[in-house]
Every structure is written in C-alpha cells, then in structure tokens.
Amino acid sequence: MTRQASLLAVAVSISFLLLTCISSTAAADVSVEDAIEVGDPAAVSDEEATEVYQRSIARVEEIRGVELEDPPEFRRISHDEWRNLTGDLDFGVDVEHRVMWRALLMVEDRESVEDVLRTEAAEGTLAFHLPRSNEIYLVSDGGVDERALAHELTHALQHERHTVEEEHGTWDEAQGYAGLYEGEAELVRDIYAERCRESWSCFTGDEPDDSNGVGGEAEEAGDSEDTEGSSLNYGVYAARFHPYSDGLEYVDRVRMEDGGWSEVDSRYEDPPRTTSEVVHHERREPAEPEFADSSDDSWRVLEDAAGQPTFESAGEAALYSMFLHQSLTYLSEPVVSLDGFLDGEGRSVYSYRSDATEGWRGDRLYLYLLDDVEEEAAASEGLHPDSYGFLWLLDWRDDDEAREFHVALERVLRFHGEKATGGWRLSGAFDAGFRVERTGSRVVVVRAPSPAEVDAVAGDVEATYVDAARAGKVERGRVVWHDDGGSPLPQPAPGAAAMAAAVAFTALVSRVRRNS
Question: 92's torsion region: left (phi>0), alpha (psi -120 to 50) or beta?
Fold first, then answer.
C-alpha cells in the first residue's frame, strides 16, 4: 500500500497559499564572476535579489557542470509571512507516523506531532523549491543567502534531470533516499560556500560564514541565552536533519571515490533505501521482520485495504536520534557521546554513529488500536494514550549489537519509570506500560496503556520466537524474520535545508556537553 508523500501535499498547500502574496521579478542574465552592488546588504531590493539569484544559477551550473534548462521563478517571503503560512499547512501525518515519533520517545502523548513539525518548519526554513510550479522561495527579511539558493537550485536540477521519487515506503526508506537527494544539494551548497570564502564575492544573508553548513563557533554560540528555552524538538530535528548531514558526506564520497558527478547521477537509478546505508557509506540490505497477530479480542492491528498489517520502520538514524533526544532533554548522563555527535566525518555536520545503534539490521513497528476506536479518530490528533499500543520488532547484526541497544533503551525507560510486573511502568512524559525482550540478535518492544495490558497487545509473542523463525515456521504469535519484500507505508522526506536551526542545535549540544 502506498500513498503520495506528504511533502508533496505540503508543497501544493504552499503553492496555493503563496499565490496571493508573492510576485516574481525578472532580470538579465549574469555570469559567475560578475560583481553585484547593492545599496544595503540587509535590505536588498527585489531587483537586486533577482540579479543575485541569476548569478547563483550560473555558479551552480559551473559547480555541477550542467545547464539548468528551465530556471525556476524566484520569489521572496518574509519570516513572519512564512510563520503565518506554516500554521495553515497540512503536514499529512498519518497514524503510523504519529505513533513512530512516540515509540521513539521524542513526542510526548500530550504533544501534537503536527505542531512539532510546524515549529521546525517555521524556525528552520531558509528557502524551498516547489517542483510542480517550478518556483524557488527565499525566506528572508531583507538579505539574500546565495548558499540557500544553491541548495534549492540543485533540487531544480534534480527534478529536471532525474525521475525524483515522490512516493516512498517507510520513514527509513524515505530518509535513505533523501540522503542522496538532500546530500547532493548540500554538497553543491558546501562547494559554493567554499568558493565564496576563497574567490567569489557572495551574499550570505544573516548566517555566519561557515564551512560545513552550521556556521559560527559552537562553543561561543553555546553561551548565548538564545538557545535557552528553544521550542525545537531536538530528537525530531536530528532525525530529519540526517540526510543533510550524513547525506552530504555520502554523496561527496560517491563523487570523489566512485566516478565524479556522473556517478552521483547514476545513483538515482539505484538510490540508498535505508539511513544505515547513508550512515556507513555502504550498501546494506535491511532485514524485514513479519509477524502473525495474536492480540486478544479487545485490540486489533491496523491493516491496509488488502487486510495486511501496516507498519513503520524507524531506521538507524532515527534510533540514534532517539537516544540523542533523551540525552539532551531528560537524562543527566548522555546515552550517546555528545562529543561524538559534534564530530561529523569528512563534510558531515554531525555523526550518527553509536555503539547502541550501529548494529541495526531492520525494524518494523506495528500499530494496535482498541477494538472500539475508529481509525479516522486515531488518525487525528485525538489519538488518546489509552487507545493504542504497538509491537516493535528490531533485528541486529549480532547478539552483542542487540545487547548494546537493549541496555541503552532500558537506561531510558528506567529514567521515565520503574520496573513492574510484565515490564515497565512509565509515568510523566510517557505514561504507559512497556516491555522489552531480547533473544539473541532480536529485540521486541511492546507498548500498551498499562503494564497489565501488555500481554493483551503482545499476545503470546515470547522470548523463544527466534527458534520458530529460524526453523522457518510461521505460527500465530511467533515473529518471522526474513529479507524479502513487504508492503510499507510511505512517509515524507524532509523539507528545505534548516541551517539556521542547526546553529542553535549545535550550540545546545555544546552547552549540554560542557555541563555534563
């Protein structure tokens, strides 16, 4: 079962909303080296901004070695106008996606996932490309950032030269693909920024001049009171930022080691399908666990139109972001190294590698609803904590890798609750019953409204299920792990580059690191 990625729905909403308030301007072509004079860099006129945009097109074409045949219309919108518009956008969050963020212990049950995504969009968007209307919007209060334009112009090139996928399977598959799509745009932006420092005269808006997309010095930024009380959800932000960070290094390695830009182009025929592939810069085929439902009559697993259980897959980068979020938001002792996170490899902004997550092979998250809960109600923000549960199956490369994850997850659960009969009793931010079982290289996580209800959701899935799977049996209540296809639901790829938010995010991590 597939549906159109919600990013496309957001783009259509943006197009409709912007038609009434933004107009385009025209300018003569300019070349790469042309000097552009403006009266006030902080208050660039529409005519001046369009001239800068025309020069940015020439510069991106030079970096990529190809011509943009149909340049997008260039438009500008203020930050206030953009924030107002985000309040009316439909982020297309389905119920599986909503539960995934809660399973990752990033979005609390009392929080709105849409509001979390809306805040990120409002605070972190510098520019965006609308492929259907062929427009590029710069979010600015007067300045012009050529690096943000370079990123979006690369997206225009991608849509012009490739069949860019608009439908995806799971969140992890979408983010793996975005590692190529956003990684290429970030690499062009990075090279553009290097040339701005070395030889080109450039306009960089209000962003600090930077070498890796973050800008400024994190240690000094960490002392700023502006990072205190930020409404940004750091776990969701980190998970969604992954394609911009590791994707940047992934695409650069493809370019430098495997055959230049032509090899980057060829990857669109066989793109990465997991974040693990982007994290480790190597092909990784995920395991895909399936199961037979054995919940009691009060619960039902969510199914598609064909009667097949639907599921999500969070993937390695999201699991890492879960532990990072806990380290930054709740725990006094980080689960993952904050020094390590800030030490991105090569061009990467951040590093998403940790002992607790790097052994990931695959995961599937199955959603359960109380039998009397309507799916339409669950799909809204009315999803009540007492109305849903999940069964999350995670496969690891070996027993030790599974143990690392299990230990790290139980550290998090211990902070939020206490041991109870049948598992864990969480309270406060995540008020529910949890059970975590590990057998060999497999981990099962079950969530129910209370510990007493875990058995009703999990059925007779036991620690011995691995033996049944290895024997090739498909029994009711036994998990079967295999490596061939499934029917995942699509999830949205990330939106436009969020470099401004990365500055505050890096500062926050730096401050927590120093204080821990």
Answer: left
